[in-house]
């Protein structure tokens, strides 16, 4: 059973990916089909959260109606909050290296 869980976790890592470009983050399905795009200028805040934080503080983090585009169950997540717009709900993603991802996005937001 443990082997099945490990294989499932590994295969899910290939379904949704995040590519950082010059002006924004592209969210892709199977690395080729774009399913979302977030411009850096539209990002109000980006932060890393643990699964434990999400479970215990979901209301405080404002994640009740978040768009969840993650595919890894046991890793830390990144919350992206947009400044405004119709689709300004928080976005919850699971990049491979959340700390580095948050740092790079914050650097791109300042540029």
Largest sheet: 4 strands, mixed
Number of helices: 3
Overall mean pLDDT stands at 81
Distance between the termini: 47 Å
Poorly predicted spans: none
Percent range of helical residues: 25-40%
Order of helices and strands: HEEEEHEEEH
Broad structural category:
alpha+beta
Strand content: 25-35%
Using only C-alpha atoms, the radius of gyration works out to: 14 Å
What form results from the Cα inertia axes?
globular
List how many beta strands DSSP finds: 7
Neighbour order of strands in the largest sheet: 4-6-7-5
Describe the structure.
With 111 residues, this protein is α+β, with helices and mostly antiparallel strands. The chain has three helices and seven strands; from the N terminus they run αββββαβββα. It has helices at residues 2-12, 51-61, 98-110; strands at 16-20, 24-29, 33-39, 43-49, 67-69, 77-82, 91-93. It starts with a helix and ends with a helix.
Topology:
Blueprint (H helix, E strand, L loop, with lengths): L1 H11 L3 E5 L3 E6 L3 E7 L3 E7 L1 H11 L5 E3 L7 E6 L8 E3 L4 H13 L1
Parallel strand pairs: 5-7
Antiparallel strand pairs: 1-2, 2-3, 4-6, 6-7
Throw out a few tags for this protein.
four-stranded mixed sheet; 3 helices; 32% helix; alpha+beta
Tell me briefly what this model is.
By secondary structure, this protein is an alpha+beta fold. It contains three helices and seven strands, in the order H-E-E-E-E-H-E-E-E-H.
């Amino acid at each position: 059973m443990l082997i099945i869980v490990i294989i499932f976790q590994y295969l899910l890592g290939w379904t949704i990916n995040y590519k950082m470009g010059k002006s924004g983050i592209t969210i892709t399905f199977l690395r080729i089909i774009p399913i979302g795009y977030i411009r850096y200028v539209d990002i109000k805040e980006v932060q890393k959260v643990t699964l434990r934080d999400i479970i215990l503080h979901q209301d405080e983090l404002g994640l009740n109606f978040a768009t969840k585009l993650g595919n890894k169950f046991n890793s830390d997540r990144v919350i992206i909050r947009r400044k405004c717009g119709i689709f300004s709900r928080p976005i919850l993603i699971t990049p491979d290296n959340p700390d580095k991802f948050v740092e790079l996005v914050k650097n791109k937001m300042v540029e």
